[in-house]
């Protein structure tokens, strides 16, 4: 029997990465997107998203994937994934109307025996309410997308969580064939359990983030260094080597806040206590403003209109996404200052009140302070001596410790990083 033909509907970040990764497993892939302009770009191998190594993966598997703006081209598929990103608003709430419309268009073009899999992130109860396809051919699968590391995770998933109308029944052979090709454990469960599983994963992640941020802030105040403590926690079997223990600038991106908002709404509707979620969000907002507080204390208090350089606009490295970006929140607070900004992939035009720079070092020219707001790998290559040569100010704010604090102090800077007291020359 020839390998299953796999369809993907919705060429946003999730759909593009998933479609290419599935083609890389040897399957013939049909990728549908209603926006003809997006399809034209994809046909030219001009990806509208940024992920490390994704261009190369597409080039290596180009003969197995076809992009189309016609939903009818999905009719040849054995399994079709609805894989569009679920957009969120500024309060973390999802707009599911476009997803529902895409499900209906996709279902209208399926063969009578084809399987429909909802890969986009959905709130508990959504899948069971879908009536466009019989439930014995309808599944939801927990996506594993992590911006900046999407290719590695799509090619080598840790596990597949599959929501089913009846988890006691074997998965359809064509669907199972696709899952088995990735060589990871498969966990069938009822629809609602799978939908809640993704939220559960993100809750554990948020808990780790909050632990790191709370204790890192205490470390800054008492003379401890949080990053000296982290290795001891990773060796504790109750915590583990992969725990999210590095402090950061709050909860950024869209998915985590969406899940927190979903649980707050569910708790309110069902009379449950979710006060811890409010606490997580409050801590996130406080840590997001850490760079602002340092700037206020060390620069703006004496020079309110100081020139500030900001390196990084994306909410984290290796992505174009700026959803809930701490860097953009900081720049908004600095509106009215003389601002210089740089990001390797995000265009500076998204901050119209700042001056974009062609290279990182240009951001430091004439600046009173330099903030490394996004931990892009290329910023680690900056030489302290070069920064000192062009930057008259001596405040270096490096929350993620991309540069050497000792070298910064030796060059006359005061160095501020998360989880430790400031380093200053004596």
Short note summarizing the structure:
With 426 residues, this protein is of the alpha/beta class.
Total domain modules: 3
Q: Uncertain spans, ≥5 residues at pLDDT below 50? A: none
Cα separation of the termini: 74 Å
| Shape descriptor | globular
Question: Remind me, CATH topology of the largest domain?
Answer: Rossmann fold
The proportion of strand residues reads 5-15%
Discrete helix count: 16
Beta-strand segment tally: 14
Q: pLDDT average, as an integer? A: 92
CATH homologous superfamily heading of the largest domain: NAD(P)-binding Rossmann-like Domain
Give, in spatial order, the strands making up the sheet with the most strands.
3-2-1-4-5-6-7-8
Strand-pairing-aware structural class: alpha/beta
Give a structural overview.
With about 425 residues, the protein is an alpha/beta fold. The protein has 3 domains: about 5-190, NAD(P)-binding Rossmann-like Domain (Rossmann fold), CATH 3.40.50.720; about 200-285, N-(1-d-carboxylethyl)-l-norvaline Dehydrogenase, domain 2 (Orthogonal Bundle), CATH 1.10.1040.10; about 290-415, Rossmann fold (3-Layer(aba) Sandwich). Helices cover about 40% and strands about 15% of the residues. The chain has an 8-stranded mixed β-sheet, sandwiched between helices. The chain has a 6-stranded parallel β-sheet with strand order 11-10-9-12-13-14. Helix 1 crosses helix 3. The chain is globular, with a radius of gyration of 24 Å. About 45% of the residues are buried. The mean pLDDT is about 90.
């Amino acid at each position: 029997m020839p390998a299953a033909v796999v369809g993907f509907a919705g060429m946003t970040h999730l759909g593009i990465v998933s479609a290419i990764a599935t083609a890389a497993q040897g399957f013939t892939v049909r990728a549908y997107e209603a926006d003809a302009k997006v399809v034209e770009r994809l046909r030219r191998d001009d990806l509208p998203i940024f992920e490390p190594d994704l261009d190369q993966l597409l080039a290596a598997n180009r003969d197995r994937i076809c992009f189309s703006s016609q939903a009818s081209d999905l009719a040849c598929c054995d399994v079709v994934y609805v894989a569009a990103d679920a957009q969120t608003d500024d309060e973390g709430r999802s707009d599911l109307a476009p997803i529902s419309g895409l499900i209906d268009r996709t279902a209208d073009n399926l063969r009578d025996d084809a399987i429909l899999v909802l890969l986009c992130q959905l709130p508990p109860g959504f899948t069971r309410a879908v009536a466009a396809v019989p439930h014995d051919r309808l599944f939801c699968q927990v996506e594993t997308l992590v911006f900046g590391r999407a290719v590695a995770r799509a090619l080598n998933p840790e596990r597949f969580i599959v929501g089913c109308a009846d988890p006691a029944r074997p998965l359809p052979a064509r669907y199972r064939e696709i899952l088995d090709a990735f060589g990871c454990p498969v966990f069938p469960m009822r629809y609602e359990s799978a939908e809640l599983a993704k939220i559960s994963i993100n809750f554990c992640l948020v808990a780790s983030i909050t632990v790191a941020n709370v204790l890192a802030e205490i470390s800054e105040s008492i003379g401890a260094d949080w990053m000296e403590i982290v290795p001891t926690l990773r060796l504790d079997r109750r915590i583990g080597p992969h725990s999210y223990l590095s402090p950061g600038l709050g909860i950024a991106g869209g998915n985590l806040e969406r899940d927190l908002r979903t649980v707050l709404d569910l708790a309110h509707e069902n009379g449950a206590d979710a006060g811890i979620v409010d606490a997580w969000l409050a801590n996130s907002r406080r840590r997001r403003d850490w760079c602002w507080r340092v700037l206020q204390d060390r620069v703006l208090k004496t020079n309110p209109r100081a020139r500030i350089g900001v390196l990084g606009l994306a909410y984290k490295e290796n992505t174009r996404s700026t959803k809930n970006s701490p860097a953009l929140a900081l720049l908004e607070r600095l509106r009215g200052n003389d601002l210089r900004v740089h990001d390797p992939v995000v265009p500076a035009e998204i901050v119209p009140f700042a001056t974009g720079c062609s290279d990182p070092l240009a951001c430091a020219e004439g600046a009173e302070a330099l903030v490394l707001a996004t931990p892009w790998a290329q910023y680690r290559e900056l030489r302290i001596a070069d920064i000192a040569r062009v930057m008259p100010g001596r405040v270096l704010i490096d929350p993620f410790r991309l540069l050497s604090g000792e070298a910064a102090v030796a060059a006359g800077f005061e160095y501020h990083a998360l989880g430790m007291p400031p380093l200053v020359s004596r």
